[in-house]
Structures are given as structure tokens and as C-alpha cells.
Amino acid sequence: MRKRFLSDLKGTEKLAKTIYNEDGRVLLNPGIVLTNNYISKMDERGVNIVYVEDEISEGVEFEDYLSDKIRQKCKKDIRESINKYLQTGKEDYDTLIECSQIILDDIMSNKGVILNMDDSRAKNEGLVPHIINVTAIVAIVGKKMGYNVMKLKDIVTGAILHDVGKIAMLRDKNLTLNKINLIEEKTMNEHPKRGYEMLNKLWSFSSVSKIMILMHHENSDGSGYPMAMKKKDIHEGARLLRICDAFDNMMIGNSESKKPIPFNQIIDYLKFMDKYFDQEIVSILEKVIPPYPSGTVVELSTEERAVIYKQNLIDLKYPIVRAFCDKNNKYYKQSKEIDLNLNKDIKIKKVLEKVLEKV
């Protein structure tokens, strides 16, 4: 399978990866032909990216850091929990904590876990996929930082509850989950403090989880909120959450953009904005993100075209590729598999969004 932008589809492609709705129900199954009608409906939902099957990417598998089963279960359970609170005012933290533990368990069971990010979610799904992604990214980076199981439990709890203040603001204004954009920015900036105040009265949550919620929008240079703290005073868990939260927000892109920001550009931004983000943690995040996700089509220094076949856990900068055509765009009868870690004289020159049809 390989990633394709919805705007580049011709209406003849075959879907490779299931499309779900915001409640985790299946909308389109793998194998279905993505006709213009389906493309139009996905565009209406805010889906910008799909994964398709074709000859170029045959045998390529998307190496998601969460299983579809767990991702969709958590999406359904979290959405139901939030909607219940919005309707009744009854807080349901247990469901969210259970989801954070399921996510953590799945990540801990995968020794070679990497952030091969699935960026095919719909923009109008909003807060719930963001909560799941941030929780998973925090767990993966925290694991890479060497945190023990108890500390990991505390930080994933802080991560899954980091926007609980926003949810309370929705209830204040009698708004539904998909209307969160109607809350004014000035009011929204109070959500870390609001979330902290909601949980601080509950003994069942650790001080680490609470302080992460309070400080997750503080910046290293003191320009953040709500307390304008500087790096030395910001809890490490909150600095980690700040980076993972920003990363996922940039992953989905803004409402005007049809295409999300590439992973490497997000990392470049996080590095450039060192006045905001802890650079030691940014460097760890970079180590678990493949610069070239599986299924990406690239041009090699040999001028051959290739698809990223597998990630190389020895060094993510040097994946295993399958070269499928030469510099003259003549397709090989059989693709050539190249481990770039064993052939470092061969470089990836650039990513190709469009590929010439086989002739």
C-alpha cells in the first residue's frame, strides 16, 4: 500500500486501508474501488489522505504504532464518555484512564515501536483522534526516554486528560464536541488551568498527571500560559506533552490546507523553535519517527524511483526500499530491494508525490 492525496486520485484506485467514521465504524473496506462518488464523500468529511493498493507498492504494509482494533475502540469509548459528560455533567474519568492503559500496553508489547503516523484521519473528527495520538506519542517517547512503568502510567494519564479543560468549556457554553472551534481563543487559553482545577481535588490522580495538564502550554522562554513559566521550572512531563501536543496538531494541518505538513518539516519547526520546545526531548522524538513513512515514493541518488518498503529499526534514516523503475522511467520487470543501511552510497534525493504511469 502507499499513501495518496485525495486530490490526486483519478477514481480508479483500490483502497488498501480501512476508512472509519468518528465513532470507529467502518465506512469503506479495503479492496473497494475509490470512485469519484466515494472521493467526493471523503472530501466532504475532511479526509485528505488515503492508502491505496497498486503494483508499485505491492507487499508494503503500514506499520501503525497502534492496532486498528485498539485505536477504533478508544475512539468510540472516548467519544461516548465525552458526550455523556456534555449531556449530563457526570464525569467519566475511568473510561479515559482505561483507554490510556490499553494504549500503553499495546505500545509496551511492541519492542520495535516507531511513529509511522497515520495521517488519513478526517479533519472534522477533531479532538478525539488528537487525544489518542498525543497519548500514544507521549508513551512512545517516554518509553524511549527510559521511564519505568509507573512513570509511564502517570504521563499517559496526563496526556489522555490534557484537554479535559476544553471539554468543560464546551459544557459551560452548551456546545457539542464538533463545535469546539466556536470557543474564543482567549477563553480557550484557560483550559490548562481549568483542567488542573477539575482534577486537583481528586486524590486518585498523581501529582505528575495533574502538573502535566496545568503546564502543557508553557514555553521554555516563559512566553507560554497560564503561568509564563520558564524551562527550569516546567515539569519534564509537561515539556514532553507540550512537544507531542504540538506535533500532532501540525500533523493534521490547518483548516485551509488540503495537505498536512510532512513529518520532517514538523521536526525542523520544533528544532527551530527552541525558545518554546525542550530540544533534548525533540531529539528523542526525532529518533522514533521515520523520515520517510512506509509506502512513500522517492527518487534515489541513482535517479531510480523507489517505494519505501520497510523501516530499518537499526537507523530510521536508512529504510529498505524497492526500486521499481530507472532514471528513464522504464519499469523493471522485477523490483530491486535495497537496504540503504547497507548501501549508504545510495541516498534519497526527494519524495515524489506523483509517479508516472507504467508503460
Structure report:
The protein has 359 residues and is α+β, with helices and mostly antiparallel strands. Helices cover 40% and strands 13% of the residues. The protein is built from twelve helices and ten strands. The protein has helices spanning 36-45, 68-88, 93-108, 127-144, 149-160, 164-172, 185-188, 191-200, 207-215, 236-252, 263-272, 279-287, and strands at residues 2-5, 14-15, 19-20, 26-28, 49-53, 297-300, 305-310, 320-325, 331-339, 348-351. The longest helix has 21 residues, at 68-88.
Topology:
Blueprint: E1 2-5, E2 14-15, E3 19-20, E4 26-28, H1 36-45, E5 49-53, H2 68-88, H3 93-108, H4 127-144, H5 149-160, H6 164-172, H7 185-188, H8 191-200, H9 207-215, H10 236-252, H11 263-272, H12 279-287, E6 297-300, E7 305-310, E8 320-325, E9 331-339, E10 348-351
Antiparallel strand pairs: 1-5, 2-5, 3-4, 6-7, 6-10, 7-8, 8-9
* Share in helix: 40-55%
Fraction in beta strands: 5-15%
Note the main sheet: 5 strands, antiparallel
SS summary, helix count: 12
How far from one another are the termini? Answer: 20 Å
SSE sequence, one letter per element: EEEEHEHHHHHHHHHHHEEEEE
Mean pLDDT equals 89
Q: How would you write the strand order of the largest sheet?
A: 9-8-7-6-10
Number of strands: 10
Shape: globular
Overall SS class: alpha+beta
Entry keywords:
five-stranded antiparallel β-sheet, 359 residues
Summarize the structure.
40% of the residues lie in helices and 13% in strands.
